[in-house]
Design brief:
- This protein is of the alpha+beta class.
- It folds into two domains: 83 residues, SH3 type barrels (Roll); 292 residues, 4-Layer Sandwich (Metallo-beta-lactamase, Chain A), CATH 3.60.15.
- The protein is built from eleven helices and 24 strands.
- The strands form five sheets. Strands 13-12-11-10-9-8-23-24 form an eight-stranded mixed β-sheet. Strands 14-15-16-17-18-19-22 form a seven-stranded mixed β-sheet. The protein has a five-stranded antiparallel β-sheet with strand order 6-5-4-1-7, covered by helices on one side.
- Strand 23 and strand 24 form a beta hairpin.
């Protein structure tokens, strides 16, 4: 098919343009369709927002492109923009920021999108947090509180939602997405807050994206936010397995935020998505880095994240992260060094976890217990990392 398409295009006198790329324009929200003919062709694939394809040639109404997987086909020209490769690659507009807030034993992740709109995924903790968390969130969002558009509550565990009403005072949200029955939230104050919000909607497996159906529930500028699992009914660990699993893609950079999804959700993801789709740059580990029901070795091996982030408190009773988990994460991150930082982990002992604390590390494996707030920034090609307890910027990845 590739040879035929390119041959027909060149036979028509349309030159191949080897020094350019094609990406969806700013007017496209999710994807553009790649077809086997200029008009009314059969769908071959989809070029997602933020992805780039090699430009092989053009007609007045279409571009012939080659995708990263080798697929060749036509896209409608008016829905695209071209990027020149004569010199440095023209970056995508804006940057994607992922802020992993230090909330102790809990979770709170802020996404600042390339268009500066924002999305908060969870905000909860098992213990009290001081005003520095709300001050940090306000500083990251800036003076315009309308920038925080959406909140996702991954599942009804208090350490994922019980700080929301405190941190979001004065914010006018457009929508709040969750994946369980309201009765599962055993917190009257939170339920009162939730019922007072706009656009409260329960997600389910009917809302998840597929590789050929890259639907999104959230507008994030040039980045694509996809739900890969939500409210999955499982036989074990059912509360955690309700977790909303989110994938964020921006150009060549991608991240996976799985809530506290357990082994049955991990198996479902491995079954429904290809290895290439799950091969992400960043993983926020589930369940505070506990390896048992979550963070299975086979699942981690499929993802092979260059950056691993664990949200936890120091010397937690579960002993997370465990040394064997750390060794696996380090093997994925070994190719790219990060800023010098320390990390604490444990090995199992007869009388409980045996802690190894403040060990120096250069690989991109971080815990909020050791690093404080962690910020990962990507321009759609490389990434940089900074932490509250390291002033040295990380080198960008290839």
């Amino acid at each position: 098919m590739r040879v035929v398409l390119l041959g027909l295009l060149l036979a028509a006198g349309v030159p191949a343009l080897a020094a350019e790329l094609v990406t969806p324009s700013a007017a496209v929200r999710e994807f553009i369709t790649v077809r086997d003919a200029e008009t009314k062709g059969r769908e071959l694939a989809r070029l997602l927002v933020g992805q780039r394809a090699e430009l092989l040639g053009s007609t007045p109404s279409a571009h012939l492109v080659r995708l990263a997987d080798g697929t060749v086909g036509y896209v409608v020209r008016r829905f695209t923009q071209t990027l020149s490769l004569d010199g440095p690659l023209v970056p995508l507009e804006g940057e994607l920021e992922l802020h992993f807030l230090d909330v102790g034993e809990g979770d709170a992740t802020l996404l600042v999108c390339p268009d500066r709109s924002s999305l908060l995924i969870d905000a909860g903790s098992t213990g009290p947090v001081d005003k520095t968390v709300s001050s940090y969130l306000d500083a990251a969002l800036g003076a315009d509180k309308s920038r925080l558009d959406t909140v996702i509550v991954t599942h009804p565990d208090p350490q994922h939602f019980n700080l929301l009403q405190l941190l979001l005072r004065g914010h006018a949200l457009r929508q709040v997405l969750h994946a369980s029955e309201l009765a599962d939230y055993d917190d009257a104050r939170f339920l009162s807050w939730l019922r007072g919000q706009n656009g409260v909607r329960r997600l389910g497996m009917a809302d998840v994206a597929s590789e050929l159906r890259p639907v999104t529930q959230v507008d994030c500028g040039g980045a694509l936010v996809q739900v890969l699992s939500a409210g999955l009914a499982t036989r074990t660990d059912w509360l955690d397995n309700l977790s909303v699993v989110v994938k964020i893609s921006f150009g060549d950079f991608s991240a996976l935020l799985p809530g506290d999804a357990g082994a049955e959700v991990e198996a479902s993801l491995l079954q429904r998505y290809s290895p290439a789709f799950l091969d992400v740059d960043l993983l926020k580990l589930a369940d505070g880095g506990v390896q048992g029901e979550s963070n299975g070795p086979n699942f981690l091996a499929a993802l092979q994240p260059q950056i691993s982030v664990i949200s936890n408190a120091g010397r937690n009773p579960a002993g997370a992260p465990h040394g064997t988990l750390l060794m696996q994460l380090q093997s994925f991150a070994a190719a790219v060094e990060g800023p010098p930082h320390t990390l604490s982990f444990s090995y199992r002992g007869d009388d409980g976890p045996r802690w190894q604390e403040n060990r120096a590390l250069r690989q991109h494996v971080y815990t909020t217990a050791d690093a404080g707030n962690i910020v990962v920034v990507s321009d759609g090609s490389g990434f940089s990392v900074r932490t509250a307890r390291s002033a040295v910027p990380a080198a960008a990845s290839d």
